[in-house]
Design goal:
Length: 397
Amino acid sequence: MLLWVGFALLTAVVVGVLLRPLLAGASSADPGAQSLASNDPTAVASAAVYRDQLAEIEAERARGLIAEAEAEAARVEIARRLLAASEGAKVRTSAPARTDVRMVGLVLASALPLLAVVVYLAIGTPGQQGQPFAARAPDGTGPGVEQLVAQVEARLRAQPEDGRGWDVIAPVYLRMGRYNEAADAFGRALRLVGESPERLAGLAEAHVLANDGMVTEIARTSYERLRALAPERMEPRFWLAVAAEQDGRSEEAAKAYAQLLTEGSAAAPWRPTVAERWRAVRRKLGLPTEPVPDGMAEAKPTSIAPALAREDVRAIQQLPEDERKRVIEEMVNGLDRRLAENGQDLDGWQRLIRAYTVLGRRDDALAALERARSALAAETTALEALTTLARTLGLSS
């Protein structure tokens, strides 16, 4: 309502500014009208007759034919008639000019607002719903992410073959944790727009995250294609190694991890994660986890819970099932107690979490994961390794 009041006031000001010179012109036209009246033939003739009558009255008064009082009354009457004739000529001359000015003013006063309304209806949005400023975004600077996503979703519902729209919204879904929707969006973008390393990586990552770290067949196919398109990228080779490990092809996985550890910088943030995977696979195969492949020795954490020797593993495997289970649980509980005393051991935490998962003690595994994150909160690479391990073991929420 205040907006329309403002528009009305602004229109009134503009009309007033435009009419001011016209009104001023009308006022200044009066002297010209009087001058024109003096040149009117009818007015000139009337004035001459009245002047002759005044002269006759003055002559008759001089000869004593009329008294002074009568002569004065006659002069007043003649003067009145002279003034009336002059005013009539003035009105007849100036009336058309004043009428023209008023007409122009009325046209401007009505045409300008009408023109403004017509233009607004043509190019404006009079049907737009009002929106409070505070509701436009959490920080008040513009639409929020949820609002923008909703707008894109509405457009995609109306135009489901808009490949660019799917390409835009897919990574947003991924960052928002909407993994199933991200996988669907990346798949549509690949079909409609075409293949690219970013879309393949996004599709594979979305499927892995949606399945709690499991490399599905779609993710595997996408990573294989990504490896062919961008052989220099690390993530397709890592996740294909994880897929081999999940399929029980431990030797293939160990070789793939070892190859990754020999490449890139020793300070790369992904190295601790790859090293943990390499050690885990080697332990499954009963192989030593030391020495690590070249290039990883600098990043190896100090462990207070070393892996069992190969002969210890064999001895445990030969025990009866109940005894074997008891021994393993004692070892796991002992590792848990040691980590409670000194939690700065990423390798120990990873083996504890994995052991609880293998034993079917999921709650203990989740609790150990939270304790590890708390103990290693200042170590960014350690937290990344724990997150990857949680996804691989299906512990991520």
